[in-house]
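Exercise 4. Each item below gives a protein and its sequence. For each, produce the structure-token representation.

Item: RDD family protein (Cytobacillus mangrovibacter).
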Amino acid sequence: MDKRAAGFGIRLIADILDFFILVLPISAVFYLIKGEYSYEWATGWTWQIIYTLYLTFIPLLWSGYVIGKRILKIKVKRINESELTFKNMFLREVVGKFLVMNLTFGISAIVSVFMVVFRKDKRTVHDLIGGTYVSYDR
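Answer:
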């Protein structure tokens, strides 16, 4: 495995960048459709579904990157260093993040923070489920 596993801070910043980079254009579309600005869609299931689809499919098309990770030069990789597959990303994002996080009422997200901080390989719950890790680009 790559010795340069990405830590908590850079992964958090990448997630924040993704949030704002996605929310602004989507909000503009909703504004054009409804004629008024509202961010209520971003607090419910609509955002969860859009973001989960984004995190599942974009890394498959973009060699492990999403926009925030590309900006910060980190990417999702498979443990065996081969190409990411739909199975990896489905297990990582849909099962590992979306389902497990909702079923545990967010406890798995808290556990994942501690895993990134304290594990040498920096892998989270969803990384273990998906057979992935996040690494600095080389």
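Check: Residues 8 and 116 are 6 Å apart (CA to CA).
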